[in-house]
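Weekly modeling sync, notes
Attendees: AB, CL, MP (scribe)

Item 1: holo prediction request
CL wants a bound-state model with 3-acetylpyridine adenine dinucleotide before deciding which constructs to order. AB pointed out that an apo prediction alone won't tell us much about the pocket. Agreed to run with the ligand included and paste results into these notes for async review.

Input as submitted:
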Amino acid sequence: MGTSIKRDAKVLDAVIIGAGFAGLYQLHCLRDRLGLDVTVLEAADGVGGTWYWNRYPGARCDTESHAYCFTFSQALIDAWSWSERYPGQAEILRYMNFVADRLDLRRDIQFGRRVTACRFDESQNLWHVTTGLGETLRAKFLIAAVGCLSTANVPDIPGLETFEGRWLHTGQWPHEGVDFTGKRVGQIGTGSTGIQAAPVIADTARHLTVFQRTANYSVPARNAPLTPEFQRDVKANFAEVRRIMHSTHNGHAFTIEDRNVFDVTPDERMQIYDQAWDKGGLQFRAAFKDLLSSKPANDTAAQYLSDKIRSIVKDPATAEILADIDHPYGAKRPPIDTDYFETFNRDNVTLVDVRKAPIEAITPTGVRTSAGEYPLDILVFATGFDAMTGPLLALDIQGRDGRALRDTWRHGPTNYLGLQVAGFPNLFTITGPGSPSVLTNMPVAIEQHVEWITACIAHMRETGIARIEATETASQRWVQAVNAAADATLLPQAHHSWYLGANVPGKPRVFMPYAGGMARYRQHCSEIAAKGYEGFALS
Ligand code: N01
């Protein structure tokens, strides 16, 4: 560390990086439940994490609003009412500000601080955390609450710097919005984000050209305002809602049907799929329990959903490009939408198949594929994120003996329970790779990690333990368990998915989230704590 750095003389109990769902709750738990001295460092000028940055047109959560919130406090549940079945970005951001105010969190958050380096000082058993403003904070514990999808991935397409129009990434959207009126807009990417954005952009743009590399499934969200009765019911019965969220594989407030695809006749199956389509949303996956484990079972859903695309999209050639999907349903994160496929029936929307005719370059006036050039005024990258490891590696973390996280993870993330990395004492990663995280409803995964970390730190303080570090052996076993859990599903069959790191050139191909289910994972973590933190070295 350079000599010009200002060092805060005070030693904090903990530094938390990030003020999204994870950082806010972790601050509340450590400060208000354990009475610790904690500072949160946040790069943005406000709370919200993902919802602070992702302000692109149509940004909305795919989890139903009554399940996309903190569940630890009935007082918070009672004091907040969601307006729609799925919460929009602006409403979620309001909610997070409401929580920050209600729990008086802001006074311990330092905004506008991007962490640039984290160093473990072995002699003092402290973390030194440096920000872009040149300050260094010292703390006994370092908790990364940086999210899984916070490092924007702008593909390295030749000529981007020559583009004379305006280009944007959905994950770094300007707060004042973007006016598409009268503009020729290009959108690269048809993941969950692109599928939300395209219909809204098409509403005002002169023309929208969607560049699709991989066709994707999508189920209608069927968003709608919530009735006062529903809002009242959820508040009155929240203990039951929470129980369901804690008992399921994916942390959502619905259960997966206890039947296999081939337990029913083809007619019954069609009826079940029709009902699931009409109901809409991620619940489509819950129609049968073997959709993510049996390829023949999955094929029936894949066929149903691609037939739906062909029935919605009027131009047969466009429908074919959209319906030509190369991976099992749900093997990539399944999007849900509002009028996505209908958008391709508009006169001002064109679909370009860049699998068939790849993008060659961005020119001063547009995008050039091997089939020709598309003139554009605005280019939107809905191209996703350097997921899960990207935000952690960006912190430039060095643990014991000067070992860098970047070197430790050069062949892919290795850690224990997604919570701790061997060689990095007293560092916790909330929803790190190797935990259920992105395969679940995130607030549920976040609350479980935060509560586990809080209990662990409380235990250390009660028993006079100064250091906790995952052992190499436990980490290696856990990586095997993560791989085995993924291999028991169809998830690794989507070869270009960001779950595998395949969307970022040069990134190791390792299945990152734990696919064994949230409920099972929660129990496993509790058992490990009950056994005196088995697999961790305490000293
Ligand atoms: O990103 P993605 P996303 N040339 O990586 C394409 C969460 N989320 O931002 O598949 C051409 O899924 C890429 O093509 P391909 C959710 O977990 C949550 O949409 O690599 N195309 C793909 O089509 C989600 O999964 C909510 O061939 C290129 C797209 O860009 C995650 O965020 C809402 C390309 C990227 O899709 C990420 O979703 C929205 C190139 N060079 C998102 N590079 C909620 O509800 C990339 N692509 C909470």
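Recorded for review: The chain has two domains: 11-47+105-151+386-538, 184-230+246-381.
Action items: CL to compare against the apo run; MP to circulate these notes.
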